[in-house]
């Protein structure tokens, strides 16, 4: 069992999880280039009501549409296409991470 002695080590571990796409269960395909940005639904949804609603909506839609996803690495993930710019999602993730840090204080 991992015991976190400081909030920095927890944040480092969360960053590490996000860097390993096989541990993530959601991928945002961002902008026209569909740049993949990986995440963990439970963490994102509990940190932001907007992300919670987005994830919930896309999960329901995915069940109804049974949309096929290209690429083996995306097979078991919820895929959310975002036509916005990569910077918008980056700002949102920064806010989510900063709120996570505030909760740990």
Features:
105 residues; alpha+beta; Potassium Channel Kv1.1, Chain A; 3-stranded mixed sheet; 4 helices; 3 strands; 53% helix; globular; disordered C terminus
Could you characterize the architecture of this molecule?
The protein has helices at 7-19, 41-47, 49-65, 86-104; strands at residues 26-30, 35-39, 78-82. The protein is α+β, with helices and mostly antiparallel strands and 105 residues long. The chain has a 3-stranded mixed beta sheet. Helix 2 crosses helix 3.
CATH topology: Potassium Channel Kv1.1, Chain A
For the largest sheet, list the strands in their spatial order. 2-1-3
CATH superfamily: Potassium Channel Kv1.1, Chain A
SS-based structural class?
alpha+beta
Query: Count of DSSP E strands?
Result: 3
Helix-residue proportion = 40-55%
* Straight-line distance between termini: 22 Å
Q: Helical region count?
A: 4
Evaluate the radius of gyration.
14 Å
CATH top level assignment: Alpha Beta
Spans of 5+ residues with little confidence (pLDDT < 50)?
100-105
CATH architecture: 2-Layer Sandwich
Task: List the secondary-structure elements in sequence, H or E.
Answer: HEEHHEH
User: How many separate domains?
Assistant: 1
What is the arithmetic mean of pLDDT? 73
| Gross morphology | globular
User: What percent of residues are in strands?
Assistant: 5-15%
The largest sheet, given as strand count, sense and whether it forms a barrel, is: 3 strands, mixed
Short précis:
The protein is α+β, with helices and mostly antiparallel strands. The protein has helices at 7-19, 41-47, 49-65, 86-104, and strands at residues 26-30, 35-39, 78-82.
């Amino acid at each position: 069992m991992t015991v976190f002695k400081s909030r920095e080590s927890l944040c480092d571990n969360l960053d590490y999880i996000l860097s390993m796409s096989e541990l993530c269960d959601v991928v945002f395909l961002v902008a026209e280039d569909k740049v993949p940005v990986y995440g963990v639904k439970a963490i994102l949804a509990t940190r932001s009501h907007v992300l919670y609603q987005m994830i919930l909506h896309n999960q329901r839609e995915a069940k109804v549409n049974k949309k096929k996803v290209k690429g083996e690495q995306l097979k078991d993930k919820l895929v959310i296409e975002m036509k916005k710019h990569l910077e918008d999602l980056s700002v949102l993730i920064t806010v989510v991470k900063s709120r996570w840090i505030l909760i740990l204080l």
